[in-house]
Design brief:
The chain is about 45% helix and about 20% strand. It has about 130 residues and is α/β, with parallel strands linked by helices. It has one domain: Rossmann fold, CATH 3.40.50.2300.
Amino acid sequence: MELRDEAESNRKSVLIVEDEAILRLVVVEALNDTGRIIYEAGNGIRALDILSAHPSVALLISDIKMPGMSGYELAERALALNPELKIIFMTGYSRDPMPDAMRRAGAQVLYKPFDLEKLCSMVREIVPS
């Protein structure tokens, strides 16, 4: 674990939160090619556990509509842990206005279906290696 912690301090990490396992797997596989450390969670509670255990996470990519805890709720709690955290929301349903707190935090929205290369490009831009 010590080697992993040292590696994490030298590379930026990304957390993918998506309740649909197949979509989460596709996104994780695509982002593995960006050279970042990728964590994944299927729900908000697991995501908060990961964020607490890995303060090096620089970018949260989350679905908005999830059972239990919405992506907006997750992001609000995640920002309380790390105010510098960058956020991208993925959604196929909601074109509702983003909450003011998320806009002020600079969160971005990517509408499903999206091009994986576009997502990878956004990650490279937001979290330079």
